[in-house]
Amino acid sequence: MAKILFNHVYKRYGKFKEVAVNDFNLQVEDGEFLVFVGPSGCGKSTTLRMLAGLEDISDGEIYIGDALVNDYSPKERDISMVFQNYALYPNLTVYENIAFGLRLRKLPKHEIDLSVKRAARVLEIDNFLDRKPRELSGGQRQRVALGRAIVRKPQAFLYDEPLSNLDARLRVQMRAEIISLHRKMEVTSIYVTHDQVEAMTMGDRVVVMNKGVIQQVDTPELVYNRPNNIFVANFIGNPPMNFIPGKLLEDGEDVDFHTNRFALRLTDKHAAQLRKHQLVGKTVILGIRAEHMSFESYELEQHSRSLITGVLEFGEFVGSDRYYHLEIGMDSLLIARAHTRYQFNNGMKVSVALDMEKALFYHRDTEILLTD
Ligand SMILES: Nc1ncnc2c1ncn2[C@@H]1O[C@H](COP(=O)(O)OP(=O)(O)OP(=O)(O)O)[C@@H](O)[C@H]1O
């Protein structure tokens, strides 16, 4: 077990030195479960592979514990990796697959036997030890791949999209199993996924990446509630955050947010914040999540300065709630959430109250969150 440090790490590929990972700086704490998340091609696998020693580093330093590992072989780094395609040996039995790494390390036979059986018991694959991988289901194969990783206690576990090949139900189950294993073993872990739900449910902290650059490193709650920039706000959360561009205008002591359709009164806190950034008179982007836009009528009166009206295009049923797409005469639709006990019809003209306490403001050009 160890902490891991990335210090100004770069990866450039090919003749044109295209940057796949750009000035990556991060400290992973000892025993932490950290998730890298981002769209396809954002550099998350490359970063993980550089840490594992499967890919050279173009620039920078990687430390595992106190050791600078840039020139260490994968084996010397003492890391276990779990891959998306399981990477099992087809000709070996489940037992031999799990034992493989221990044999390479020349551990005594009885010790290997104990470790393999313990791992197999934990993962409930002890009945399949004599089978070959082709005689197993996808979920069972992924368990064997996990077994191979947890059979010993390395400095760190690295997971590269290990659940992508499983069906939705099995994914949820394996997610829980991986986290429960992590709680028991407390080995520093980095988990790569493009699935934001996986990232949010599993990570102690989440690293959101785009185009080789870290966008935000925070707890799932902070990444969801206070996305650093519009990219993160769009990527995390389903549906994504709503964005409304508008101009800030002074009204005596107050500041209002104006579009050509409606005006909203800012909270004192937001007004002070945006004044400090000298943005009064300028255009900013208001970000608000669907659950902070409500249809309930009693709230409408209380929030008369936070109402917008529009036409309901359609609703999406998601169990206890329905997401309504609302046309407010701008380029994009807004999405508001309502409990299914409320029924609205397509084409209805409605008023929606925005919970302005929960609104976030982003700079129009940099798309960065405006904070205190
Ligand atoms: N061997 C390689 N040669 C050249 N370019 C590469 C190589 N491997 C990866 N890349 C490029 O580096 C960038 C990052 O790739 P990487 O696989 O790390 O992304 P990722 O975020 O893991 O994506 P995915 O979720 O699709 O696996 C991509 O633009 C990819 O095309």
Describe the structure.
By secondary structure, this protein is α+β, with helices and mostly antiparallel strands. It folds into two domains: about 5-235, 3-Layer(aba) Sandwich (Rossmann fold); about 245-365, Nucleic acid-binding proteins (OB fold (Dihydrolipoamide Acetyltransferase, E2P)). About 30% of the residues lie in helices and about 35% in strands. The chain has eleven helices and 20 strands. The chain has helices at about 45-50, 75, 95-105, 110-120, 140-150, 170-185, 195-200, 220-225, 230-235, 270-275, 295-300; strands spanning about 5-15, 20-30, 35, 60-65, 65-70, 80, 155-160, 190-195, 205-210, 215-220, 240-250, 255-260, 265, 285-290, 295, 305-315, 320-325, 335-340, 350-355, 360-365. The strands form four sheets. The chain has a six-stranded mixed sheet, sandwiched between helices. A five-stranded antiparallel sheet has the order 13-12-11-14-20. It has a five-stranded antiparallel sheet with strand order 15-19-16-17-18, with no helix packed on it. A hairpin with a 5-residue loop joins strand 17 (about 320-325) and strand 18 (about 335-340). Helix 3 crosses helix 4. It is elongated and about 80 Å long. It starts with a strand and ends in a 9-residue tail after the last strand. The structure holds adenosine-5'-triphosphate. Adenosine-5'-triphosphate binds near residues 13 and 14.
Concise synopsis of the structure shown:
This is Sugar ABC transporter ATP-binding protein. The protein is α+β, with helices and mostly antiparallel strands and 372 residues long.
